[in-house]
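Morning run. Coffee first, then this:
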Amino acid sequence: MNRNARLWGAVCSLALVAACSQEQRDPPDPVEAPAPDEAPVSGVAIAYDCQSGKTLSVIYAKDRTAALTYEGESYRLRPVTSGSGARYAGEDLEWWSATRDGREEGRLSRLDSEGRPQGVELERCVRKGQPLAPASNPQSMARAPACAGPQLALEIENSDAGAGNRGLVLSLRNAGTETCSITGYPGVTLMDEEGRPVVDVRADPWMQGDPAEPPHPVELTAGAKAYFDIGWNVVPHESEGETRCPETRGLRVTAPGDTAPLTQETGMTVCGGRIKVGPVRATQDVSAGS
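And here it is:
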């Protein structure tokens, strides 16, 4: 009996030693480090009142992005081309804004998993302090139709150069007889000497002004002009392997929201693979139009 007890005690001791050894070998579960806070966004902060009774705010940053806060959540949005107004998109939300009849309006919409519009409008808002509904004014309701390519003429107004950068001021002139309205960013494609698109250069929207503001509609009577800028760099980005930059021979421009092209011959050497395109404005000088 004593022999069995001693044997059983030895077995239990071995089991305890094995359990302790196993605890020593098993590493503790890793502790995930907290994600670093995103750097605060600096820019022009604008608050909006929405028809639902909620509010949202948008910071329009100088790097052309927007930081939108809605229902306690923050979203970083990038600028995307818009036929009218200013448009920003993120992973699942889209923000569009424009100034109409003295009111800055905005719409918040849902995007699908691939960044495409779902047709789901979450909010319709106006800048804080402005009326949610426009004033009943028959004259303001009679908005001029959008300008179309066939009634416009494209012209180069001015050029600028400095520190490896180049710029053009172009105009869209109403060559027709009826008043039309234009808002947003023109579509710009660079052409080679044979009239083919230069696919290695993309056009990005260029928010201008200090502070930067969304585009405003410009009404063009017969013969009147709207202006916009194109900016680019002429220094090869050698750190990115660029030693030669493509040379272009012309521009193909479409009015915001239109598809009829306008062309203009001009030679450009574009480095970095992109140009910047500003929104249309009522004056040739940027500061005068802001």
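The chain has two domains: 43-133, 149-289. Good start to the day.
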